[in-house]
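re the bet — no i am not wrong, look at it urself. input seq straight from the record:
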Amino acid sequence: MGNKFNAGTLCMTRGVNDRVVDDVRFAEFVESSLVKHLRGDWGDLCEEDKSENEHSLIDGGRLFSSYGSYKDKIWIITEADGSVTTVLFPDEY
């Protein structure tokens, strides 16, 4: 299954980056979550938020995903113009 949209520039916050560097399992979780996000698997969102993302794919809105790992939750946000996708912890928003 291919990507539903272009990620633009991939970024991560310092907090996520620090965990990726120190924890291989977390790095793999981030990578697999990014793949899911780009394929339109919005993760742990309610149906209303998933539906909003589907509309955003058509109308050009911001895309938001949430994924839980064995330790933490991450959010992935792609800006409405598709220029940037950011991985962050919820408390970094």
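see?? The longest strand covers residues 63-68. told u. also Helices lie at 14-22, 24-38, 47-59. so pay up
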